[in-house]
Structures are given as C-alpha cells and as structure tokens.
Design brief:
Number of strands: 9
Protein name: Acyl-coenzyme A dehydrogenase
Domain Acyl-CoA dehydrogenase C-terminal bacterial-type: 458-730
Strand content: 5-15%
CATH class of the domain at 180-296: Mainly Beta
Radius of gyration: 29 Å
EC number: 1.3.8.7, 1.3.8.8
Distance between the termini: 104 Å
Domain Acyl-CoA oxidase/dehydrogenase middle: 181-271
Pfam family, one: ACDH_C
Shape: globular
Length: 759
C-alpha cells in the first residue's frame, strides 16, 4: 500500500504539483491572515455538495437568559422611551445628555465585557436583540450602543489583550468612564485597509517622566464612529523598527494599539454628517504621538499581528451589529407598511387589496422573515463560540442589501406619507440611514465581488486550503506528500459530486437527501440539489481558471450569490422548524424558497454562459442545468398569502415583527398602531354600513343598522386613521433662518414679484 502511494505521488502527483506551483498566484500576508481568521461552519457543509441537514437542525436555538430578558424589558425599554428621533436628528443633532448618561450608567457600552471586569457579560444573541430593539426607535442611539460592543478596543482587549491591559481598561469601558472608538479607515485606505500609510516607528521616548521603548505614531483617520467623543482610541497602523530595538525585522506589519485621546499630539476632528445621521462620527489625526509598547494590544508579542486580530474580531462583529439593525429595519417596515396599507383607502377600498401593493408588501414580509431567521442562526453559532468568517460576510452584505429593498418598498407603498418629513414620519430617517449600512464594515460591492466566494472557496472547500498550503510549503518534499494526499481526496470528492449533481439535476432533486420536515421537505431536497450543482461548478471553475478565478469578479460574485442563498434559505428552514412549523407562516417560507431558487438557477445559468472554457461550460450545463433555469419565483397565490400576514392582528404578525420598540406616546408609529387596532376591530361594523349603502355612521344608527356604541367606535377609528394619514407642515421661519426677520412671508414674495415685474 505504501509503495503504491509513493508510486502515485512520484509518478502522477509530482508533475501536477510542479504545474500547480507554477501557476499558483502569490498570496500576500494580509490575504493569508484574512483567510485564516475566524471559523468555518455550516458554509463548509454547503460546499461539500451534500449538506447534513440533521447537523443544522440540531443547532440549539439562540435564547436569552432571564437576566438578558430583564435588561430588554427594563433599561432597553426605558432608553427607547427617552428617545425622540425627530428631535435627535432635526433639532439636537445628537443624543441628549440624559441619554448619554443613561447608556453609560446602565452599562450599554459594556454588554459584551465579562462580569469579572464590570461588564454585563451578555451573549452575542442578547447583544443582537438589544441593537435590534433600539434600532426600531432611533438609528442614532442604536449605532451609539452597538459600536462599543462591535469591532473595537473592548472586543480586541478581550480576545488579545494582556491580563494587565484587561484589568486596566475593560472596567473603564464597561462602566462608561471611557468611550471607545476604532480608527481603521483613512483617506488612502478604505476597503483596502492594507494600503494605509499611518505609521508607528519603534524608538525610545519619554512617557510619564520615564524613558521607555515605544512607538511614535503619525496617522490620519476618518469616518470614525464615536470618534468626536471618544476618550480611548483603538488605532490600526503599520509598525516599523528601523533601529531593530525589538528584533531583526524592520517592517513589522499592521499593528493595533490603544491611544488615550488626551495624549499630546492627538487631534480630534470635527464631525461628519453621514447621510444626515447624527450619531457621533468624524476624523482624527495623530502627530508624533508617543506611546509605550505596552499600549500595543497584546503587548510587544502582538506587533505586526494587527490584521489577523482585526479579521478575527470582524468575523464575529459583522454577524451581529449590522444584521441586527437590518433585520430590525425589515421587521419595522413590514409592521408599519402592513398597517398603513390596511387602513389607507383609495378608490373606496383599502390599498392592501391592490395586487400592485401586495407584491412589494409580500417582498417586505418575506424579507423580514428571512433576515431574522438568518440573524438568529448566526447568533446561535456565535453563542456556541464559533466565529464564522464567511457567513459574517454573507450576513453583512445581504442583510443590508435586503433591508434597502424592504425600506424602498415601504416608501413606495406609503407614498407621500413617508416622503413628507416631520415628527409623524416614521420611515424617512430609516430610509436616509440605509446607505450607511451598505458602506461600512467593508463596502458591499467589494464584499460581494471578492470576499464571500473568494474567502469561502478557500476556507469552506473540503480540500482547497490544504492543497494551497502544501503548494506554498518551502519544504518541497513535505509539500508534495501533503499535496498528494489532499489532491486525490479532492479528485474523489469531485467525481462523487459529479454523479450526485447529475442525478439530482435530471430528477429535479426528487431523490436528494432531506429530513422529515413536513410541508418543507421538498425545499430541503432542492437545496441538496443546488448544493451539489454549486460544488461541482466551483470545482470545474477552479480547475479551468485556477488563480485567475479571483480576478473574474463577476463570476466570483455569482458564485457568492449562490452560496449566500444556500445559507439564507437554510436559515429560513431552520426557523420554520424551530418555531413548530407554523402553518400561518408557511407562505413567507414559500416566498423565500421560490425567490431564492430563482436566484440560484439564474446565477448558475449566468456562470455557465460566461465560463471561459466553453467545453466545460457545455458539459456542466448538461449535468447541472439540462432543462435551463426554470424557477419563475413565487406564485400569485403565495404573494397574496404572504402579504396577508401583516394585514390583520394575528400571532403570525407578532412572530414576524416581535419586540419592536413600541412606546405609548403620540409619535407616528404609536398613532399607526392605534389606528390599525381600531380599524381592524371595527371592520365588521364598517361592512354593515357598506352593505346598507350608508356612509354616515349617525344615519346608520338612526336606521338601526348599527348601535350607538358601534357608531362611536367607527368614529374613533376614522379619527385615528385621519391622524395617521395627515402629514407634518411647518411655518417657513421654522425651516429656514432667512425668513425669521420677515414679518409676512407671503407679502415678501409678493413684493419681490412686483419688483421683478417693474424691472
């Protein structure tokens, strides 16, 4: 056996090994560190082409502890009641001081910090739930709370800090004595953070009246959330050791350090205004700022390891904050748009009856269902200590993109109600905030075209990373042996995937593996079918394009879209199962599946149409898509049933839009909820009036069609609906200071017109 393996290695594998080493593109240190950051999880199962559904269904649901639930019902609810979004972004341009005091006192900034350091020690799911709820009340407050609990000094200290650093800084971050921010983006380096020119030169200097070896820093950062108010800056820079004070290497690489913002040379800039959002955000600079080496997170041993540290932390952070905000936005859009469509009438009937409204409303509803399903599943992984790097990228990308679609649809259905700004507009500011989520934590264009599949293909593929490591091994013989082992396993895997994909595609997945999941069982079969087709196409693309595939960004993006759909659809199935297979929710699940299957089939068709090797493309088409892209999307029946989920008070509506920040005030959202409740509770009474061809409820009472009490109920409902439909208006001087000295604005313009006519 041993001699046979040696013969295979020396005779068959050796020339392949030599060829592969010749074409393998060089991998930079930053690329390798990004690839090695985080974990693989369910994405690896999807890459096998034969996912083990029992593994997915056994994943424990993300749940809250009693303490975490009490925090949501207590301090979080109190915070939401303190927030007035219109005043925050229009009048104050900031959170009021009592809110800043409250979030620091109640340790909102220390949710992820362990209790031993004075924090709340909450789970990722609790962190997600807090951000989600606050997001439905105030974007500015949600961002303010989520940033200290995401990528930044707190998380980096917990993961990589020395014991002394943790004991010094974490209690201060937990109780709000220090407000953190993190400086990564600079004018020269946005998505390409490795291009930063910010520097830290190792040298000797004086710090707190003693001479120490440290770093002299010069930097310029921008777009830094909480930067204008931060007292502790986490900073990413490139470290250099020209005098070899810590070792033989001169260029040490990206490093992260803690910078108290009161140090000499630190310049906190003025505020940015991101899409009219007023959370604290701005630039900062450092000019010859000196810090000791023990301000490097993790100490001297972590010099040059900053990029890997950042990517590891980001692998978790991108799966929590923005997906939570996005899921909240979609659920909020579903609840408000369903209620508004139900109570708003045109041409004598509720606009919810129009199929042109049902279609975007169904899309909002299903998006809310799917995003929250994916959020919960990702949090379940994070709760278990898994940091899924590829899945976090999928979540950030698709959660923010789908929130954008959902909010756009909500704006379209609301029409002028959502366009006219004012205290009663409950959608406008969310619409303005959407581009922020699209842009931050890695621009979505970059994430879709380069990261999701580019990172996923290497990390989640069963054998590719082993092959690449073997090819890069400086010990040629050791590398050849490792490559021989991984390569032939890869070949066997490819042949199994080929036959599996062929059988499942030609039988439309009829015999693909699936759990017993009731009405959802056929969906599992189709996902098994598409997983096999995806895995085979990936292998063939890698075989024919090799390292050039990463430069084929449009192909990479399409592969990434398929992987993303496989994950998001898996999450929707998991949610339906976990919630007890609720029949009322099945329409939302059907919509997700039909839309996702259509996307997968279209992306496969696009890949096969654009794969450079046409012989392989034709062969793959015969194997994985012999009948073409056939799924057309959700049927009209599904659209109608899905839209109906939010048009009446029901348990399905509550499951779809749980735990939103509902405050009993006179705000637009509260008015809408009251009007919806009154309108739906009086629907039967209104039908009796319509049947009697009577419009005035008093006339109906006098004719005995309804009772006096029922008439008064109708009047209350009508008044509530009228208050919702009304939009805000303002005195000219309230909107523009140029009119404040003008006693009569109309007279001013009349005189201006007469002067123009005379001239």
């Amino acid at each position: 056996m041993r001699s046979a393996m040696s013969f295979r290695r020396d005779t068959l594998t050796k020339p392949i090994f030599a060829l592969a080493r010749g074409v393998l593109p060089a991998m930079s240190d930053t690329e390798r560190e990004a690839l090695e950051a985080g974990d693989v999880w369910w994405d690896a199962d999807l890459f096998t082409g034969n996912p083990d559904w029992s593994k997915l269904l056994k994943v424990p649901q993300a749940t809250l502890t009693d303490e975490e639930r009490a925090f949501l019902n207590g301090p979080v609810h109190e915070l939401c009641a303190m927030l007035d979004e219109w005043k925050i972004f229009w009048e104050w341009r900031d959170l009021p001081q009592d809110v800043w005091h409250f979030v620091r006192r109640e340790k909102f900034f220390g949710m992820i910090i362990p209790k031993e350091f004075g924090g709340l020690g909450f789970s990722p799911y609790a962190h997600s739930e807090v951000v989600r709820k606050i997001s439905t009340r105030s974007i500015a407050a949600a961002v303010t709370v989520m940033v200290p609990n995401s990528l930044g000094p707190g998380e980096l200290l917990m993961r990589f800090g020395t014991k002394e650093q943790q004991e010094r800084w974490l209690p201060r971050l937990a109780d709000g004595r220090d407000i953190p921010c993190f400086g990564l983006t600079s004018p020269e380096a946005g998505s390409d953070a490795a291009s930063m020119v910010d520097t830290g030169i190792i040298c000797k200097g004086t710090f707190e009246d003693r001479e120490v070896v440290g770093l002299r820093l010069n930097w310029h950062k921008r777009y830094i959330t909480l930067g204008p108010v931060a007292t502790l800056l986490g900073l990413a820079f490139k470290a250099y050791d020209p005098d070899h004070l810590v070792g033989d290497q001169e260029e040490l690489g990206i490093t992260v350090a803690l910078i108290p913002t009161n140090l000499p040379g630190v310049e906190i800039g003025q505020r940015h205004l991101p899409s009219m959002q007023v959370f604290q955000n701005g630039p900062n600079r450092g000019r010859d700022v000196f810090i000791p080496l023990d301000y490097v997170i993790g100490g001297k041993e972590r010099l040059g390891q900053g990029w890997k540290m950042l990517m590891t932390a980001l692998a978790a952070g991108r799966g929590i904050s923005l997906p939570s905000l996005s899921a909240a936005g979609a659920a909020y859009a579903a609840r408000t748009t369903g209620a508004y469509a139900r109570i708003r009438e045109q041409f004598g009937i509720s606009i919810s009856k129009f199929e042109g409204v049902e279609e975007p409303l169904a899309r909002i509803v299903a998006t809310a269902y799917q995003l929250d399903a994916a959020r919960r599943l990702t949090c379940a992984a994070l709760n278990a200590g898994i940091h899924p790097a590829v899945i976090s990228g999928i979540m950030k990308l698709h959660a923010t993109e789908r929130m954008r679609t959902a909010v756009d649809d909500a704006m379209d259905i609301h029409g002028g109600k959502a366009v006219i700004d004012g205290p009663q507009n409950y959608l406008g500011n969310l619409h303005r905030a959407v581009p922020v989520g699209i842009t931050v934590e890695g621009a979505n264009i970059l994430t879709r075209n380069l990261i999701v599949f580019g990172q996923g293909a290497i990390r989640a593929h069963p054998y590719l990373l082993d092959e690449m490591n073997a090819l890069a091994d400086t010990d040629r013989e050791r590398g050849l042996t490792a490559f021989d082992k991984a390569f032939w396993k890869h070949v066997g895997h490819s042949f199994r995937t080929l036959f599996r994909a062929f059988g499942r595609s030609w039988t439309f997945g009829a015999f693909a593996l699936a759990p017993d999941a009731g009405d959802a069982t056929p969906f599992y079969r189709q996902l098994s079918r598409y997983s096999a087709a995806f895995a085979l196409c990936v292998d063939m693309a890698l075989l024919t394009l090799g390292g050039a595939l990463k430069r084929k960004e449009m192909l990479s993006a399409r592969f990434g879209d398929i992987l993303s759909e496989l994950y998001l659809l898996s999450a929707a199935l998991k949610r339906w199962q976990d919630e007890g297979r609720q029949k009322e929710d099945f329409a939302a699940l059907e919509w997700c599946m039909a839309t996702g299957f259509r996307t997968i089939e279209n992306r496969l068709a696009e890949i096969l149409a654009n794969l450079p090797n046409r012989f392989v493309a034709v062969f793959l088409k015969l194997v994985v898509q012999p009948f073409g892209a056939r799924v057309l999307g959700p049927s009209d029946r599904v659209v109608h049933e899905c839209a109906s989920l939010v048009l009446e008070p029901s348990s399905a509506r509550e499951r779809l839009t749980p735990d939103l920040a509902q405050v009993d005030d006179d705000g637009g959202f509260a008015r809408l909820e009251r009007a919806f409740t009154l309108a739906t509770s009086t629907d039967a009474i209104a039908k009796r009036l319509r049947a009697a061809h009577i419009r005035d409820w008093k006339e109906a009472v006098s004719k005995g069609v309804i009772t006096q009490a029922e008439g008064e109920q109708l009047a209350a409902a009508h008044e509530a609906v009228t208050k919702v439909i009304d939009v805000d208006d303002f005195a000219p001087e309230a909107l523009s200071p140029i009119y404040k000295k003008t006693v009569n604005v109309h007279q001013f313009f009349q005189e201006l017109g007469e002067q123009r006519a005379a001239s």
